[in-house]
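ingest -> fold -> write
write: protein_1
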Amino acid sequence: MKRNLGIALATLLIFIMSVVAGGTKASADDNSLQKMKDAGVLRVATSPDYPPFEFQATIDGKSKDVGMDIEIAKQIAKDLGLKLKVMDMDFGSTLVAVQTGKVDMAITGVNPTEARRQSVDFSKIYYNGGQAFLVNKKQLKEFNNAKKLHGAKIGAQTGSLQHKLAKQDFSDSDIQSMDKTPNLIFALKNGKLDAVGLEKPVAEAYAANNKDFAMIDAGYKLDANETGAAIAFAKGSDSLASEVNKSIDKIHKNNWIPKYLKTAGKYMKDNLQDTSMMHYWKYFYNGFLNTTLISVLAVIFGILLGILLVLMKLSSWKLLSWTATSYIEIVRGTPMMVQVLLVYFGLGAVLNLSALVAGTIAIALNSGAYVAEIIRGGINSLDKGQNEAAASIGLSKVDTLRFVILPQAFKNIWPSLGNEFISVVKESSIVSIIGVSDLIYQLNVVRADTYRAVAPIVVVMAIYFLMTFTLTRLLNHFERKMNND
């Protein structure tokens, strides 16, 4: 049902986290419900870029998570007598968050497939809306039913159920996949696709709120046990699952799902009342603040770590040298995305780190490795006579390094360090996958809320450019001062 972005990576990380955190948190003595009651909080993971299931709306001047899934989570928390805490993150991270204990459950329109049941447990199906295709209304005569899509260009989210079904039933069509549903919608609107496979309520929501789109039934024959939406829990959370299933039964008995969808539709219409970028300035402003905070802290601690690593690497003690070299090679040889997820879910299994803190630590640890190599290059570029001259006037090795070597090295490597600082600003965007509300995270939220493809991208590009341009001018100023000294 819901997009399955990063399912392969998530599966790999679940295995890694099991090793780091000592395996699954479930045990024969299930205390999942009691732990939550002791804390008084129900922590729920979601990915708010999939209306009408979950998305964001501005309420009383503040951005809040809304949608059918959020209403269901509220009801579950009410029935359990707990305070609801919604934790936003990329969809590919939600099941990992459940498995590693970062959250108590994930409600994000996910399908309880057999593959996923190997990693997490699921509740009863709380909603099954069916499958549909979204098409351009001007092509409705040409594609007025699913059979006519054979041979057409069909889009679906990468790794999703819709992608799997399209490949099975439309093998003669050009099946294209993208990571984000909004990107598929924009491709459809621009004529790059003839149809997009979606969950029926999602297709209905897009069609109802955009006069250019129409919905047609997909006509798939499906197994309701795998295609409906269910709530995910950590393995062995039977007591929690039992109580949640009671809430789901209560919701079905009172027929509250249509009411939840109606409420979600109202928020979607409210979002479309004003889709100007000025209306969403707070989203971009908050993203700018978090991006700036992460970048500044990562640069400061990255420099300090880099100096420490280079001293260790140049040390005559083999243990220190080998440790620093190994760290640098591992960091430089693995993707930053994996490092961010490892710190958040791995280290977070031991220490209760927020997404912002974990993201900052991961970026700083990554930057430190590159800074170390830059500094080492600057030290090696100096004439060896500098050490001899310092020794001749009685300076110790520490004083030589502090007053002679490092100042000259930093002067030589300043342009390279400047490039690293600029890279940190741009690469910090990766923290959006764990739910940090940086610029990229807010970009995706605004695109999902407004259905506008280009304008939010242009705004974020302009903000990043102003940030890096200002930083470049500042770095050039200090470079000129060093050259004049």
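write: protein_2
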Amino acid sequence: MKKKYGLLLAMLVALFMLVVPMSTQHAQAATDDSLEKIQKKGVLVMGTSPDYPPYEFQATVNGKSTVVGMDVEIGKKVAKDLGVKLKIKSMSFDSLLVALQTGKVDMVISGMNPTPARRKNVDFTHTYYQGGYEIVVNKADKGKYKDKDSFSGGTLGAQTGTTQYNAAKKQTKNTTVKGMTSNSDLILALQSHKVQGVAMEKPTAQAYVSNNKQLAALPSHFDMSSSATSSAIAFRKGSTSLVNKVNKTVDQVKKQDLVKKSYLPTAGKYLKTNTVNTSMGHYWKAFLTGIEYTLIITVCSVFFGFIIGIILALARMAKGGVLKTALRWLATAYVEFIRGTPMMVQVMFVYFGLGLFVNLPALTSGIIAISLNSGAYVAEYIRGGINSVDDGQTEAARSLGMSNGETMRYVVLPQALKNIWPSLGNEFITLIKDSSIVSIIGVTELIYQSNIVRSDTYRGVAPIVVIMVLYFILTFTASRILNYFERKMQHD
């Protein structure tokens, strides 16, 4: 039960549904081969958001960060009963249903409630777990509050878009309901007194309380329907044969009470393991992985963004016939559109939108989106740099018999690059920080890794301090290197 950017994703889903031909939907309804496809592929891709213990969370297993939890155990049993291998794909909760609808994942197991609104867009299995809701408060404030009605005049937190968030909005009076991306963010807000309580599912609340002596849990007394407090597995709409097959597994899990007898105790062992050593040094591999992916995204995006920028700049400056005029208008439209829309939307559109036609990995999608975004800004830097070169330079080159292409390549662009170097350096520094946006599609850069560490250790501030320092080191180092080359160019 986690989400964010609900309205934004809802708009994207609507857009994607318009793109998908109606004939395709009818064909899927007429011929359901969902089970056959999975068994033929031999791999079942499970989408989850691993920031929700004990349902799904990250733990260090044999020195490697691994997604564990009771939902993962259920996913393993489903895959085993289907006779296929399980592959887990992590992303933000908000992105899961979109990923399911666009074919990025085959199923979603992430403590998801089978609400009527969700049933309109995806198919659900029978419920595999029935939980309840509690409110987490600071232990020092436990005497002040009894349930949801005690927060009148205060602020109650919940994950944006969850059923408990909706319940808090509807069933509390004179209470400000504050939504955030993840429970780890909400616990940090609670401990810093930005909110007085956090509404969450009972198993998750108990996980946080048992691993943080400064917290306590209260009964919520929310009036909730059974569907709002239960969890089920989601599949693409029309996957009847696959859902029917998995329902047999779910029924077996419930009949044998495997969640309480086996899966929850297993998750509890990992939770205890996480809290044995919560020092930031213990997670150096996670932060190192984050640095690696941040640099890969930044370097690749700068390279491709520069190439795109040159092409767009030259296209915008084209003069002459109908073709050049068309290129100029297209380049101008592209630059204005990219600069006029948020990068976050662009990242999600490349990953999910193009995912309707090409199954691009999250890292590749992130690089493409950021490169396309950077290219629009670099184009303006280059265009400004070209305009800053004195016309006499061009005239002198032409008088020596150089063609337009040679003049631009050997005379104008080198001088333009020298003039715009500070702007290009600033773009590089900006991309190091903007690479954090791709964490929403599951790319394991610094922000993503910090969220993992926060979920693992139940420590809110320390991982944030670490990544702030790491980002500063990266940007400061890059700035010094860029300044060195700038001085060299000025000297030359």
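write: annotation protein_2
The domain at 6-129+229-276 is CATH 3.40.190.10 (D-Maltodextrin-Binding Protein; domain 2).
Residues 1-7, 16-30 have pLDDT under 50 and may be disordered.
pipeline exit 0
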